[in-house]
Design a protein that fits this description.
Blueprint lengths: L2 E3 L5 E3 L3 E2 L6 H13 L4 E3 L7 H11 L7 E6 L1 H6 L2 H12 L6 E4 L10 H11 L5 E4 L3 H10 L6 E5 L7 H9 L3 E5 L13 H10 L3 H11 L3 E2 L6 H8 L8 H8 L17
Parallel strand pairs: 3-4, 4-5, 5-6, 6-7, 7-8, 8-9, 9-10
Antiparallel strand pairs: 1-2
Helix pairs in contact: 1-2, 2-4, 8-9
This protein binds nicotinamide-adenine-dinucleotide.
């Protein structure tokens, strides 16, 4: 598995498995156990997903040493608003049955607190309970504000990105600042026809791959961490099997040009949760 190096020297597997909308504990646990058994070493969860306990159980049951797994969780907005950042992390660690997470992200840029919260994230980083800290759903202007007073530059910004919403300007900006971009909803979150898009289907045929694999490979090649979700073993395997081919520059550009700034999730400047 190709790994990317974060700005503090930590390495992150370029592909992870996301566990959003897998609320039922038994399904989440099975999914993560399966993922670890077939070779995933990077799991993306969040307090609000309600499955940290299941993820923790799966990690324990898997027999994979904790230090081989890159585990991300996120600070929920209510805990950001209340300022109980340390407490929220402790609760996540308890549920995940681990002493530390590899990456702790501020889940959304809550208008009143997205800058202020960062010093608390920095304290967590210094305590060693998060090997890296970052943000999620931050736009360029949020990061600009944060960097004005940050001691620690965020290691990652995780945001929505897929071929109809490529986010090129944000990716470019993050890279300039040493912040690794990470794509959520990389396959269109089951809400678009992107997996049936003729350009992607055509490229997939040429490489004897499927459209999901083409998109995941595109992310890895454009230097974006990617965390596709599936509860099905076959798809989990497919989504990981993208290191045995390469997209040409022309194919990369064809996918880049599918962009139509079509956002599927909430807008970080107007969300109401
Ligand atoms: P996704 O783009 O990964 O889409 C998942 C859907 O794609 C699946 O439900 C399935 O229908 C389909 N799919 C997966 N593999 C496939 C394959 N091989 N072939 C065909 N179809 C396939 O969407 P997502 O789950 O929303 O995003 C991925 C992860 O990103 C989440 O699980 C979560 O960890 C993270 N996320 C983070 C935020 C955030 O605010 N930070 C928001 C949403 C999601």
């Amino acid at each position: 598995m190709k790994k990317f190096k974060l700005n503090n020297g930590t390495e992150i597997p370029s592909i992870g498995v996301g566990v959003f909308r897998v609320e039922e504990a038994i399904i989440a646990q099975e999914m993560v156990e399966t993922a670890l058994a077939i070779g995933y070493r990077h799991i993306d969860t969040a307090m609000i997903y309600g499955n940290e306990e299941a993820v923790g159980k799966a990690i324990k049951n898997s027999g994979v040493p904790r230090e081989e797994i890159f585990l991300t969780t996120k600070l929920w907005n209510a805990d950001q608003r209340s300022g109980k950042v340390q407490e929220a992390l402790e609760e996540s660690l308890r549920k995940l049955k681990t002493e530390y997470v590899d990456l702790y992200l501020v889940h959304w840029p809550v208008a009143e607190t997205y800058v202020k919260v960062w010093s608390k994230m920095e304290a967590i980083y210094k305590s060693g309970k998060a090997k890296a800290i970052g943000v999620s759903n931050y736009q360029t202007h949020h990061i600009e504000d944060l960097l004005k007073q940050a001691e620690v530059v965020p290691a990652v910004n995780q945001f929505e990105s897929y071929p109809y919403f490529t986010q090129e300007p944000l990716i470019k900006y993050c890279k300039e600042k040493g912040i690794y971009p990470e794509a959520w909803g990389p396959l269109g979150a089951g809400q678009t026809d992107v997996l049936a898009n003729p350009v992607i289907v055509d490229i997939a045929k040429k490489h004897s791959k499927n459209p999901a694999q083409i998109i995941i490979r595109w992310d890895v090649q454009r230097g974006v961490i990617v965390i596709p979700k599936s509860v099905h073993k076959e798809r989990l395997i497919e989504n990981l099997t993208v290191m045995d081919f390469e997209l040409t520059d022309e194919e990369m550009k064809l996918i880049d040009h599918l962009n139509k700034n079509q956002r599927l999730g909430s807008n970080p400047d107007s969300f109401n949760f």
